[in-house]
Design brief:
By secondary structure, the chain is α+β, with helices and mostly antiparallel strands. Helix content is 33%, strand content 22%. The protein has one domain. It is built from seven helices and eight strands; from the N terminus they run H-H-E-E-E-H-H-H-E-H-E-E-E-E-H. An eight-stranded antiparallel β-sheet has the order 1-2-3-4-8-7-6-5.
Length: 214
């Protein structure tokens, strides 16, 4: 099982495109909750009420047949960004209508991937990850709980390791600035497309005040 899972781990981390070179299972930055559900149509999605979550954030645990271990994803609500843009946009413009439309997106479209955590669920050696991402990593020992972390800042990836620093507990996938830019560009394109498909609706006259992001 460990050998098979190791092969799956390596295959899952193979580059899927130049802009998304180190994603897990191709889960990209700013993918919507809908996008991720479509990638794992038979998986179980459990919303986790983590104590550190803030307003406009969601955290999901994803498990199921074909997924080695488990995946956890933190999502942020993009409607806050569009609300701010709407409030700053001059009245009567196309962009004003677009931004207003975006503030009313459904949760499944508005919550976007911020980072991804994979927990292998078996004894994956840290050396396998070092072999994958290179020896130019940083090793940290937390001052509070003395946990061990390995990180590759240029890839926005870090590994939570066992107490002895030998086994992987979690692999955390952040995103580089290039990946973030590509993700936001793709999301903006999809929102604009949805706006057009909806018939470019006008802003309701009975709701002249812009929604707030607070």
């Amino acid at each position: 099982m460990a050998r098979t899972a190791s092969i799956v781990f390596v295959m899952a981390l193979m580059p899927v495109s130049p802009a998304l070179a180190d994603t897990y299972h191709g889960i990209g930055y700013a993918y919507s909750l809908n996008d991720v559900r479509a990638m794992f149509p038979s998986a179980s999605f459990e919303e986790v009420n983590a104590a550190w979550l803030k307003e406009g954030e969601k955290f999901y645990l994803i498990t199921g047949t074909g997924i080695v271990g488990s995946i956890r994803i933190k999502f942020d609500d993009i409607r806050k960004v569009y609300s701010d843009l709407y409030q700053k946009e001059p009245r009567g413009t196309y962009q004003e209508k677009l931004y207003y439309f975006a503030t009313s997106l459904a949760d499944s479209q508005a919550y976007l991937v911020e980072w991804v955590r994979w927990s292998p669920g078996y004894a994956l050696p840290v050396r396998n990850v070092i072999q994958k991402y290179g020896k130019k990593h940083q090793r940290h020992i937390d001052e509070q709980d003395f946990s061990v972390t390995y990180s590759w800042p240029d890839r926005s990836i870090d590994v939570d390791a066992s107490d002895d620093g030998e086994r992987v507990i979690n692999v955390n996938f952040g995103f580089t600035q290039k990946e973030r830019d590509a993700g936001y560009a793709l999301r903006a394109k999809k929102v604009a497309q949805a706006f057009v498909e909806a018939g470019q609706p006008d802003i309701p006259s009975e709701s002249p005040s812009p929604p707030t992001s607070e």
